[in-house]
Amino acid sequence: NAGVTQTPKFRVLKTGQSMTLLCAQDMNHEYMYWYRQDPGMGLRLIHYSVGEGTTAKGEVPDGYNVSRLKKQNFLLGLESAAPSQTSVYFCASSYPDYGYTFGSGTRLTVV
Amino acid sequence: AQSVTQPDIHITVSEGASLELRCNYSYGATPYLFWYVQSPGQGLQLLLKYFSGDTLVQGIKGFEAEFKRSQSSFNLRKPSVHWSDAAEYFCAVGATLTGGGNKLTFGTGTQLKVEL
Questions:
Q1: Which helix (H) or strand (E) element contains residue B33?
Q2: Per-residue pLDDT tens for B4-40?
Q3: Among residues B75, B45, B50, which one has the least CA distance to residue B61?
Q4: Which end of chain A is less congested by CB atoms within 10 angstroms, N or C?
């Protein structure tokens, strides 16, 4: 099935640990995004990419890094996890027409 | 900067009743507007979008929304709700990012409960 695949689906980290969330899309979309979803706050944009090898900061980028070495993949890294990064993370991809396709999310808990 | 307000955090309706979910936006130019639905444990699915033209937009699953520029609103409606419509609904406004890319700014969501 064509779409956006996120791995892992669930993860528990200890404060200070690092991890990478992987997003893969098979629709040849140029744009890819990472959002976080927190109760009562909707979704907020962390980082985004408009093409292979390019990344840019969104509205809540602190504590995260990203890379897009291949067009189909967009990685989100947490170098030193903090409890404030407990959230559900969504990846999305699109053509330049706002037609977002979302992944099913990664539920991250930092203890 | 753009923003979206969904004033109703929770709404409960009876199956078969009509539904209206409210959305107000703030954006300086002509807005691109969206409604998404999220079922538990799932990602967001696009219900409908408005870019220009007819202000009444039809979407999937029998939903429609009406853009009212004078009220800065984009309310979602359905004439007869089904139990399977129980989910969280998000309104969003789109904007072009500097250097390319499109950003969606989401409201905080409305949780819909359907009573049988």
A1: strand B32-38
A2: 999 999 999 999 999 999 999 998 777 899 999 999 8
A3: B45
A4: N
Q: Which three-class secondary structure state does DSSP give residue B57?
A: strand
| 3-class DSSP assignment, residue B40 | coil
Distances (CA, A) of B100 to A48, A55, A98, B86: 10, 11, 12, 35
pLDDT tens, position by position, for chain A (111 residues)?
A: 669 999 999 999 999 999 999 999 999 999 999 999 998 888 999 999 999 999 999 999 999 999 999 999 999 999 999 999 999 999 999 987 777 899 999 999 999
Cβ of B40 under 8 Å from any chain A Cβ? Answer: no
With beta carbons under 8 A apart, name residues in chain A contacting B34: 98
Task: Give me A16's structure tokens.
Answer: 């200070």
SS3 B70: helix
A 10 A CB-CB count for A79 gives 12
Residues of A with a Cβ under 8 Å from any B Cβ are 4, 31, 33, 40-45, 48-51, 56, 58, 90, 94, 96, 98-100, 102-105
